[in-house]
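User: My collaborator sent over this chain with a note saying "see what the structure looks like." That's all I know about it. Can you take a look?
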Amino acid sequence: MVGKQRIQLDKKQGKHRISCSAGGPKTSQKVPEEKTTVRPWLLALFIYFSVCGSSIFQIMQSIRKGM
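Assistant: Without extra context I'll predict from the sequence alone. Here is the result:
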């Protein structure tokens, strides 16, 4: 009997917590769309140098192995 009462009490408290927290104001702030951490042109520049630099090193390595 004591176990059932405890479970019922826990359910009642849980429902109260859920109903109280759901009605509160939202505290999270929305990040403006204009402000991003990495600009698109900076990302493109990084990718360009990564690809070109990798290809240059690959060409140099193949030239060294051929000679």
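A starting point for your reply to your collaborator: The CA atoms of residues 21 and 62 lie 64 Å apart.
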